[in-house]
């Protein structure tokens, strides 16, 4: 699954629009976010990890790394 699909699914499950999300992100971060800006980031796959964490925090989720398998060595 892509981050776009994940976030859109979580938004739908929580009955939150991207417009509402943009408002919450602006309030929480002090940085202006628009519906268009978030939609474009999701479509292009350019959402920053910090922004994904902020979205998770707003919606009541925690993003974390979970060790599974190493591709090193």
Give me some keywords for this one.
single chain; 73 residues; mainly alpha
Written account of the structure:
The chain has four helices and no strands. It is an all-alpha fold. Helix 2 (18-29) crosses helix 3 (35-44). The mean pLDDT is 93.
Explain briefly what this protein structure is.
This protein has 73 residues and is mostly helical.
What's the topology here?
Elements: H1 3-13, H2 18-29, H3 35-44, H4 49-59
Helix pairs in contact: 2-3
**Uncertain regions spanning at least 5 consecutive residues:** none
The value of Rg in angstroms is 13 Å
Q: How does the overall form come out from the CA principal axes?
A: globular
What's the end-to-end separation, in Å?
27 Å
């Amino acid at each position: 699954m892509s981050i776009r699909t994940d976030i859109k699914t979580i938004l739908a499950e929580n009955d939150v629009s991207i417009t509402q999300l943009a408002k919450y992100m602006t309030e929480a971060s002090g940085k202006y976010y628009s519906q268009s800006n978030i939609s474009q980031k999701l479509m292009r796959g350019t959402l920053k990890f910090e922004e994904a964490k902020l979205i998770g925090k707003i919606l009541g989720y925690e993003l974390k790394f979970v060790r599974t398998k190493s591709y090193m060595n």
